[in-house]
Amino acid sequence: MPEPRILDPCCGPRMMWFDRQNPAVLFGDCRSETLTVPDRSHGRADGTRIIHVCPDMRMDFRALPFPDCSFRLVTFDPPHLVRAGAKSWLAAKYGALGPDWRDDLRLGFSECFRVLEPEGVLVFKWSETQVGLRDVLALTPWPPLFGNTSGKKAGTHWLVFMKWK
Question: Which runs of E-coded beta strand occur in the chain?
Fold first, then answer.
C-alpha cells in the first residue's frame, strides 16, 4: 500500500471519521491512552464513557515529524478547551490547550501548512465554546476559502484552506 496522503495530527478518538481505519490517513496524536470518565449522557448503566485514543503515530502538532510538502490533505482538529475540570470527559476526549494556546495554535497552523503539498487542502474544525473563531483565525498564515461558521450557539465550525504555491 502506498504511503498515506492524508494527515490527521490531532486525531483523538477519531470521532469525526466515518472510516476510523482508513489506510489513506495517518492518524496522529500526542496521547495514546484509554480513559474511563464519568458521563451519564451515553446511557451506560455505570454512568461512564470509555474513550480510546490510539494514534498510528504519536506526534506533536506543533512540530510535525515530516518533510515539507508530504501530504495532499491535512485535517486540523486541535484541542479547543482552555478551561477543563480534572475529570472532564470533554478534555479526555479532545484534550485541552495549555496557557500558551495562541502560540501552540499558531505553530500548529504553520506546521500543517508546511507539510501540505502546493495546492494542498487543510480542513480545520473548531468548537468555539471557550475561544472564539475570530481569535483562532488571527493565528493562521492563510485565510480560509469557505466553510460552515455556525456561530457560538451551534458550536462547531468547519473551514477549508488551500496552500497556494
Answer: 6-8, 25-29, 33-38, 48-53, 57-58, 71-76, 116-127, 146-148, 156-162
Phi, psi of 41 (to 5 degrees): -75, -10
CA 118 to chain centre: 21
For residue 88, what pLDDT is reported? 74
- Our separate counts of H helices and E strands in the chain read 4, 9
Whole-number pLDDT of residue 116? 97
Neighbours of 7 (CB within 10 A): 28
Alpha-helical regions (H) of the chain: 89-94, 101-115, 133-137, 151-154
Whole-prediction pTM: 0.89
Domains located in the chain, CATH noted = 6-162 (3.40.50.150)
Joined grid coordinates for residue 43: 446511557
Beta bridge partner(s), residue 127 = 156
